[in-house]
Automatic annotation (TrEMBL):
Organism: Aegilops tauschii subsp. strangulata
Family: Belongs to the pectinacetylesterase family.
Endpoints of the signal sequence: none
Stated name of the protein: Pectin acetylesterase
Pfam families reported in the protein's UniProt record: PAE (PF03283)
Length: 167
């Protein structure tokens, strides 16, 4: 109410949900008409370390080594991270019908994959369907392929993730 943002939120969302829910990406994505390309790790290291598992959320420090290195997570912790990944993948299903949208969602424990050549377009870049990020984005942007939507399997299935710099 203070910022009067109700007038810019999508009317379909406002008709069915509390206005505070209409701010979340799960709802916002439904109303975006401009073609977009979504690039993200399903196990984004920054989100895991700073949003999902800040140090204060685990006073007994049971998540400390896991959040710093996904390879240190036990099976219970991996299940929790997989559930978060699966929720994101499920929320992204709304773009399956948007033919002019694209995405590259890998299982690498990393953040900001577009900043470094090693993760964008090098011989050791992460791959989905034998394509690196640059190839998938290029195929989408230049219209070389319709429905460019690549989604990786659950961690630790992708051996090409090992080539990334530390998160």
């Amino acid at each position: 109410q203070l910022q009067n943002v109700r007038q810019v939120l999508h009317k379909d969302c406002l008709a069915n949900k509390d206005p505070t829910e209409c701010f979340f990406p799960t709802e916002l994505i439904k109303s975006i008409r401009t073609p977009m390309f979504i690039l993200n790790s399903a196990y984004d290291s920054w989100q895991i370390q700073n949003v999902l598992l800040p140090t204060s959320s685990s006073p007994e420090k049971s998540w400390l080594s896991c959040k710093d290195n996904i390879g240190n997570c036990n099976s219970t912790q991996i299940k929790v991270l997989d559930e978060i990944r699966n929720t994101m993948i499920n929320d992204l299903k709304v773009i399956n019908d948007k033919a002019d949208w694209g995405m590259f969602i890998d299982s690498c424990f990393t953040h900001c994959q577009t900043l470094f050549r090693i993760s964008w377009s090098s011989p050791t870049s992460p791959r989905l369907g034998n394509k690196n990020i640059a190839k998938v984005v290029g195929d989408w942007y230049f219209g070389r392929s319709q429905g460019v939507k690549e989604i990786d399997c659950e961690y630790p299935c992708n051996p090409t993730c090992n080539s990334l710099p530390p998160p």
